Batch of 2 targets.
Target 1
Amino acid sequence: MSELACCPRNGTTRVLFGIPIEALTMDQVLDHLEASIAARQRVLLGVVNAAKIVNMGRNPELDHAVRSADLILADGMSVVWAAKLLGRPLPERVAGIDLMYRLLERGQAKGHRVYCLGATEEVSRIVAERIASDYPGVVLAGRHHGYFDGDGEEAVARDIQAARADILFVAMTSPKKERFLARWHELIDVPICHGVGGSFDVMAGKVRRAPALWQRWGMEWLYRVVQEPGRMWRRYLVSNCLFMGMFVRELLSPKPSPVGELTAAPRSRA
């Protein structure tokens, strides 16, 4: 594990629900990742929202995989609001899908090489076409659908390694994507590894993202329930209630040290 001292930081990590979450803006994250690409030093990204925080408490494997990330970012507005109410404020939400688009925008100017892993073969193909049309300066180093079993993981990882990508987007569900990144990030040798969940479905036009106002008010989960009520209502009802319970316990518990001092650079793996 090495330090990337060339990247400025705001010097703090917020510890929320026992999870170290970086107090960084989107631009600070992007500047750090750009420097990591230039230095070929690896950064494993993790993002958390209310549902994932709840599931981390119930799934030790997911908890371990998320905590193995070099940067853990607040993907959900509920996490940002909880941080503020707990007296450990975060500067803003850094949503995984927005970070993906911003990385592509910067990659457009820099000629970054991108590998896309996940989703169905159809969605993967459409995403490749969208990247080629919308970000022609980005080099699509390779792609692979996300429907492979454990026996096929190493072959996929070696294909990514051979592609010599600068950025890997992993569009698979939790905890599969966290497990894949935690297990194979050393072998694949990609500077930036980012699990983007269902972002490929959005980019391919298969799923509509919530309007900006819904996002601002932290209601993306409700927008998904409206789109898929039969599949989503129970999941979000349970996870949101459990997250509220966790917040109340955190609020009433003896205050831990809310801010952990960082060095000039985050944890990065050489």
Note: The chain is about 50% helix and 15% strand.
Target 2
Amino acid sequence: MPYRGGGPALQDLLAGHIDMMIVASTIGLPHVKEGSVKTYAIMDSSRLAEAPDIPTVDEAGLPGLHFSSWHGLWAPRGTPRKIIEKLNAAVLDTLADLRVAKQLLDLGQTIFPRDQLTPEALGVHQRAEIEKWWPIIKATGVKFD
């Protein structure tokens, strides 16, 4: 059944209308912690620090089935480098705030090392994700509206 977002899918999971979903930890982890849903595995090669009892997909018998949600901040093409640097500095300052970091970690988010929080590193990561997923998208014939 197609959904228009994690929220409606999660509502149907909680109501018992669907049996399973794959969801970002930020959406699912609070429900796992309160016991309203059961989780089978983390779709990554390492366990979540905030949920160390949940096995990885590799440990659960599906080696290599890694999928992660991630976030990036983009600006329009041609944005002056000084603006990009200012935005990146603001993100770094925000992520360095211990209260913000704790909230993100409590939601199951990973905060990458500072050297991976650059516009260049984001570009490398985005290209790697495109190379990973584009052949699968093409092979399945998925269409985007």
Note: DSSP finds five helices and no strands in the chain.
